[in-house]
Write a structure and sequence with these properties.
Layout (H helix, E strand, L loop, with lengths): L2 E5 L5 H8 L4 H10 L3 E4 L2 E5 L4 H18 L4 H12 L15 E2 L5 E2 L4 H12 L2 E6 L5 H14 L5 E6 L15 H5 L4 H11 L1 H9 L3 E5 L11 E5 L7 H8 L7 E6 L13 H8 L6 E6 L8 H14 L1
Parallel strand pairs: 6-10, 6-11, 7-8, 7-9, 9-10
Antiparallel strand pairs: 1-3, 2-3, 4-5
Helix pairs in contact: 2-4, 3-4, 5-6, 6-8, 8-9, 10-11
């Protein structure tokens, strides 16, 4: 049994421990993924030679890139790097692509955790309209809110507007109990949760009172012109074609729009009437409009979620 040796004499003990992970979980994941053996001794990593040894070395190098930037390395980070390596996409990955989007009220840095998320965040910066499509758990809504909060904190915009169609499994607002706020709030819970984490509940409530942050159902956008704001449309797969056209034409001066949705989760009675599906088809060649699709490899929830999505995708296709 032969081994290759990777010199890590330029790394301190803390960095090696971050690489290995809690209870050696990162190292074990790497060994299992490539059916190899990895031994760390002093300033040297010994890797059992297999046909995939080159990939293992590259994954370890990219792990250290992430450690250099973020001073941490999660099980999910290693999982993603392994996936990129197996898809022969890891060489194009740079650790600094996963730069922070915003800092939460507790001081935690929010940053993209996958290459797809990094591309999405870059699209936010360079386009006035961004369509972010893809499966659940890829962070579309969370990163959009994080980007908007950062722009508000840096006074590049005056307002954040969050909206979504009030459609869930064919139900309309009229059939739900309570006043308009009570009817709408359950639909907008993911948006509230993201805002509370980044700004704190007290700050969000004050901003809502002053209408610096506005949260409303899509129907409330009709007839308005939205200026100097970031407007996020969530669950856009449940907009009709006419609703999507109405929403996009509300765009005013110094405004950016982010449209998030998952075309596999359309709750409209007539699924072919989805405004998201139509818009991504007819607007894809317009400069200033970014179209980013995130797939199962960009899921940042529990690793099992990615496998579940892949299994369902097979039978649905």
């Amino acid at each position: 049994m032969s081994y290759i040796k990777l010199d890590v004499s330029d790394r301190n003990i803390e960095e090696i421990q971050i690489l290995v992970g809690m209870k050696d979980e990162n190292l074990i994941q790497l060994e299992e993924a490539y059916n190899t053996s990895i031994v760390i001794r002093s300033h040297e990593i010994k890797i059992q030679e297999t046909e995939n040894t080159e990939q293992v070395v590259l994954v370890i190098q990219k792990c250290f890139e992430l450690i250099d930037i973020h001073h941490k390395l999660s099980f999910q980070d290693v999982h993603y790097l392994i996936q990129l390596a197996k898809e022969h996409r890891l060489k194009s990955f740079k650790g600094d692509q996963l730069s922070p989007v915003v800092k939460t009220r507790s001081g935690k840095l929010i940053y993209p955790k996958t290459l797809g998320q990094a591309v999405l965040c870059d699209a936010f910066r360079h386009n006035d309209i961004v369509f972010a499509t893809g499966v659940a758990g890829t962070g579309k809504t969370y990163l959009a809110v994080a980007y908007a909060v950062n722009e508000l904190k840096n006074e590049r915009i005056e307002k954040i507007i969050l909206t979504r169609p009030a459609v869930e499994a064919g139900e309309s607002l009229g059939f739900l109990p309570g006043d308009m706020k009570e009817k709408v709030d359950p639909y907008l819970r993911p948006l509230y949760d993201a805002l509370f984490e980044m700004l704190g509940q007290d700050s969000v409530e004050k901003m809502l009172e002053k209408q610096i942050i506005e949260i409303a159902p899509l129907a409330f956008m009709r007839g308005r012109t939205l200026n100097n704001a970031i407007v996020i449309l969530d669950e856009a797969q449940n907009t009709t074609r006419s609703q999507m056209k109405m929403f996009l034409t509300r765009m005013g001066q110094k405004t950016k729009m982010i449209i998030n949705g998952d075309a596999s989760q359309i709750d409209l009675i007539k699924k072919n009437d989805s405004g998201l599906v139509q818009a991504t088809q007819i607007l894809k060649n317009i400069r200033g409009i970014g179209m980013i699709h995130l797939d199962a490899s960009d899921v940042v929830r529990h690793p099992l979620v990615q496998k579940i999505i892949e299994c369902y995708a097979k039978i649905e296709n």
